[in-house]
Amino acid sequence: MALPEVSPIPEGYHSVTPQLVCRKASEALEFYKNAFGAKILGVNKDDKQNVMHAEMKIGDSIVMLSDEFPAFHCLSPLSMGGSSVTLHIYTPDADAVFNKAVAAGASVTMPIMDAFWGDRYGQVVDPYGHKWSIAARQRIPSQQEIEAEAKKAFDAMSKEKSAGA
Predict the structure, then answer these.
(1) Could you give the number of structural domains in the chain?
(2) CA angle 85, 90, 91 (to 5 degrees)
(3) What residue numbers bound the domain in which 128 lies?
(4) Which residues are paired to 113 by β-bridges?
């Protein structure tokens, strides 16, 4: 009997799928439901009720998640002193998603604003140490507009930093 053909990329997945490690993963799943409207697709736990593997869907993207397992060098940003990774969400209403994330317990690291590159944009850190940027494309500026606006923005930040030093 022939085995059914299996797709190398499961249905619903994209080429890159983030996998988050969270201290208190079960609580994190609830946070992501409340903050980003995540739909929990499945959760597998060990005999101590630690989340070994979970999958959730935010918009059209699947994100995997597990608890910390220090014995296997599987650590969250809270155990490592932060993360160098930012997860980016494009959404039709950046203000609504940003405000919902903050109301659910995320900390603002960059207030929502009209960014020089054409997005309505802001950044938060969730209670589990993961960084998220939230954006809605508003316009598509030319490369020259982006460069000119970036120069203005960085010059202003430089002046603010000098004034505060």
Answers:
(1) 1
(2) 140
(3) 19-164
(4) 121
Average pLDDT, the chain: 94
Residue type for position 1: M
Question: Is 4 a domain residue?
Answer: no
Instruction: Give the per-residue pLDDT at 165.
Output: 61
Is the pLDDT at 160 greater than 90? The verdict is no
Structural domain contains residue 2: no
Output the pLDDT for position 163: 83
Asked whether residue 28 is domain-assigned, the answer is: yes
26 has pLDDT over 80: yes
DSSP run (H or E) holding 65: strand 61-67
CATH number, domain of 66, equals 3.10.180.10
CA distance 128 to 123: 15
Question: Could you tell me whether strands 119-125 and 131-137 are parallel, antiparallel, or unpaired per DSSP bridges?
Answer: antiparallel
Q: How far apart are CA 104 and CA 35, in angstroms?
A: 5
Q: How many CB atoms within 10 Å of residue 102?
A: 16
- For residue 119, give every residue at least 6 positions away whose Cβ sits within 8 Å of its Cβ, in sequence order, or none: 94, 135, 136, 137, 138
Strands 39-45 and 51-58, by their bridges, are antiparallel
Looking at per-residue pLDDT, the higher value among 9 and 143 belongs to 143
Whether 82 is in a domain gets the answer: yes
Q: Which of 59, 56, 75 lies closest to 67 in space, CA to CA?
A: 75
